[in-house]
Amino acid sequence: MTPRTPAEALEFFSHLSPSSIKLGLERVEAALEALGHPERRFPALHVAGTNGKGSTCAFASAALLAAGHRVGLYTSPHLVRVNERIRVDGVEIADELFGQRILEVLERHPEATSLTYFEFGTVVAFWHFAREAVDVAVVEVGLGGRLDATRACQPLVTAITPVSFDHTEYLGHTLEAIAGEKAGILKPGVPVVVSRQEPEALAAIERAARNVGAPLVLEGRDFSLDARSEGSLVYQGPGMSLEGLTLGLRGGHQRQNAGVALASLEQLTSRGVQVSSEAIRTGFAGTRWPGRLEELGGSPPVVLDGAHNPAGVQVLLEGLRSLYPGRRVHCVFGVVADKDRGPMLRALLPACASVHLTPLDTPRSLAPERYLDEARPWCADVRAYTSLDAALAGALSQSASHDVILCTGSLFLVGSVRAKRGGNLGALHHSP
Predict the structure, then answer these.
(1) Beta strand spans in 180-311 (E)
(2) For residue 82, which of 371, 415, 402 has the smallest C-alpha distance?
(3) Both ends of the chain: CA-CA distance in Å?
(4) Pair 378, 346: CB distance under 8 Å
(5) Which of 3, 9, 140, 195 is 20 to 30 Å apart from 252, CA to CA?
(6) Could you give phi then psi for residue 164, rounded to 5 degrees?
(7) Are 405 and 393 contacting, i.e. CB atoms less than 8 angstroms apart?
(8) pLDDT tens track of the chain, all 432 residues?
(9) pTM value?
(10) Collapsing DSSP states into helix, strand and coil, what is residue 86?
C-alpha cells in the first residue's frame, strides 16, 4: 500500500530490510534524476574508509557548524533511531518531517519503493538537504565507495580514513582490492585527503588518484596533527598551521581522524567554503560522537565502543590502556555472523578479566553458543547468555566498582545499550 501520511511513510521505510545490499548506482541515479537532482544543490565532503570515517565526519561537521554554515550530515549506521542518520545543523530529522520527506520522494518517483533501505535513506537525505538549503553536506560512505549510493553526491573534497579488512565478501579479500573500492569515490580535479595507510592500500589509492586526476593530500607527507607535551595538538598542513587544538572525542586514534578532518577543511576553504581557525578550535573541542570509547558513567563505568573488525579492536585496546590503566575489564561482546570474529576474539579477550557473550537485536546476530568454544581459549572466564540484560548483569556480578564494563563487537550492541541509558542500565550499577 502506498503511504499517504507521514506516519505511514515512516512505517513503510521501517519495513525495508536494513540488511539488504545491492551495490550499484543505477537505481539511486534514476531516483535523483526524477527528483530534479537535489544532490547538485549543495557541495559535499565525501568520506570513505574502514574505521574512523564517522568520527572524521563528526569533527568536520562540528567545525563547519561553528563557522556559521548550514550543515547537512549523513552517516550510517544509526545506534538507536534511524533519524540519527540525517542531521541539519547537528539536529537529527524529526519524525513528522522525515515522514513528509519520504512522501515527497515517493510522490515524485513512485519507483523508489524498489530501492534498498540504504539507497532510499540516501535519496531522502539528499532531498532533505536540498530542501533545507544547506551550505555544505558531510557525507559518510556506507559500504566501499565505488558502488555505494552516496557516490552520487557532488563533492568539493573527498577523504579516505584508514583502510583495513571488513565486508570482504563485497569489497575483496586483499587490502589492495578493498582500497581500490574505497577510492572509487575519487573524482577528476577533486582533492582527496588520505590518512596513513598500509603500503598496499596506499598504492591502490595513489593509482586511482593518478587515473582520475585527483590531487592527493597525504598524512605524514602533506599534513600532520601532533601532540604537544602540555596535551594540546598542533596541525601543519599545505597552507596553514594551527596550535592549541583539543578534541572532544577520547582516544589517541582520534588525533588521526581529526587530522584528516582538518586537512579536508583546509581543502574546503581553498575551494570557497570558509572555515576559520577559531571555528576549527571550537568545533573540534565540542565534537561528540556516541559509541566511540563513550563512557556512560556509573560504578563501575560502562564504556561503549563500536569496534567490529580486527583493526577497530586494536584501536580500542590502545584507548583502554590509555584511559583505564591497570583496571580490570569485563567485556560484554556481541557480533554479527558475517564478521571476521576470530582475530577480534584473539586480540580482545586476553585483555579481559571476564567475557559475556550476548545476542544482538538483528537477524544478522551470531548466537553466543555458536562461538562460545572458539572464545574460551582466549580468556579464563567466558560465558554465553540468551539476552543482553542477562549478559550485562553477568558482567556486573563479576566486577568491582573500580573495574570497567566494556560493551563492544558491534554497533548493534552499542545502540541497544545506549537505548537502555536512563532505564534498565541504571539498575545495573553497584549501589553507592
Answers:
(1) 192-194, 216-218, 224-227, 233-236, 241-245, 294-295, 302-304
(2) 415
(3) 54
(4) yes
(5) 140
(6) -145, -170
(7) no
(8) 689 999 999 999 999 977 667 778 999 999 999 999 999 999 999 999 999 999 999 999 999 999 999 999 999 999 999 999 999 999 999 999 999 999 999 999 999 999 999 999 999 999 999 999 999 999 999 988 899 999 999 999 999 999 998 777 778 889 999 999 999 999 999 999 999 999 999 999 999 999 999 999 999 999 999 988 667 899 999 999 999 999 999 988 899 999 999 999 999 999 999 999 999 999 999 999 999 999 998 889 999 999 989 989 999 999 999 999 999 999 999 999 988 899 999 999 999 999 999 999 998 899 999 999 999 999 999 999 999 999 999 999 999 999 999 999 999 999 999 998 644 444 344 433
(9) 0.92
(10) strand
d(CA 178, CA 164): 8
Q: Which domains does the chain have, with CATH numbers?
A: 6-285 (3.40.1190.10), 294-428 (3.90.190.20)
Note the Cα 206 to chain centre separation in Å.
24
**Residues near 248 by Cβ (< 8 Å), separated by ≥ 6?**
62, 284, 285, 286, 287, 288
> Does 77 sit behind a cis peptide bond, omega within 30 degrees of 0 on the bond before it?
yes
Extract the C-alpha cell encoding 66. 561553528
- The three cell numbers of residue 314 are 586494536
DSSP 75: -
Q: Are 309 and 340 in contact (CB under 8 A)?
A: yes
CB 172 within 8 A of CB 198: no
Q: What is the distance between the alpha carbons of residues 171 and 143, in angstroms, rounded to a whole number?
A: 8
H or E element, residue 139 = strand 136-140
- Give the C-alpha separation, 159 to 186, whole Å: 9
User: Three-state SS for 356?
Assistant: strand
CA 421 to chain CA mean position, Å: 21
**Is the backbone peptide bond immediately before 300 cis, with ω within 30 degrees of 0?**
yes
